[in-house]
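Ticket #4471: structure output looks truncated?

Reporter: J.K.
Steps to reproduce: submitted the chain below (330 residues) through the standard prediction queue, then opened the result file.
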Amino acid sequence: MTAPVASNLLSWHKIRPAESLFWVLAVAAFFAFPNDLPLGTQVLTMALFVVALDLALGFAGILSLGHALFFGTGAYLAAFISLGGWHEPISGALLAGCAAGLLALALGPLVVFYNGLPQIMVTLLVMLIGYEAANKATWLTGGDDGLGGIELDPLLGIFRWSVYGQTAYLYALVWLFVIFALARRLIASPFGVALQGFRENRNRMLLIGAPVKWHLIRVYAVSGFIAGIAGAVSAQTAKFVSLNSLSLNLSVDVLVMLVLGGVGRLYGALLGATVYTLVHHFAAEWNPYHWMFVIGGLLVFVVRFARGGILGVLEAVYSRVLAQFRARAG
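Returned output as attached by the reporter:
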């Protein structure tokens, strides 16, 4: 492993002041845009989902096109828990996330057995099976009509849920912050460094005796757990679950968000989810029939001119400005 790569793998131990910018802006948005909090909640929920995919794809190199299976599992389980009479939101989300994590753990050996295109097809296949099962089990999932009527107790027994979305926004923001902090700590651990080593050169890691497949199964389960949490938060804040939470469209959307923001960066997941969701929203308002041209153009630009995603461009600009400032100061 070359020195620059090793330095990059170990850089997650450092916390930079600029990392607080996203969280400051997220809190500021709560006060600055009180009428758009439902949209903000959607941004935060999708950011949580993209973080889950980034752990599997960006850091471990697991090519997944079926992560909506875990998102949808978490969403439907959260709905079932609420409809079954348990209305406490935090424990409901944790239970739903654990169910999605166990499903990912069960599927992990099958997924990591393959590499490249076969791995993509396996993840796609299991997601489509889950979608079709939910579509046929109308007595359980509601089919095309979805599931509504999700009711929740006041958050922590104090904060009531309202149509204006204040509690939902803060609830999603806290979940994102906690999960992001844990994911960042995981990446900075020896386990996380090993994962990045698998992504860079799996054969070399095998030669030094690293348990590659077991590590990949574990991170796939963790990724499924986080995706399940994201699905549960989505169901709880929207108080509705549809088949879209298990669809191929959602899996593709979250992959596009990750590519836009920057793969293997975590903060790229936050930035990509924010940009994609906001551009989607405003472009659809501008033209509900051709909004995909805007998304497609943005994606082509990023893939062609910004291989590290939007975050990579921002980092390059920041480095250039900093270098010029130091040159003038020196």
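Triage note (M.O.): checked the attachment and the full token line is present. Residues 70 and 233 are 13 Å apart (CA to CA).
Status: closed, working as intended.
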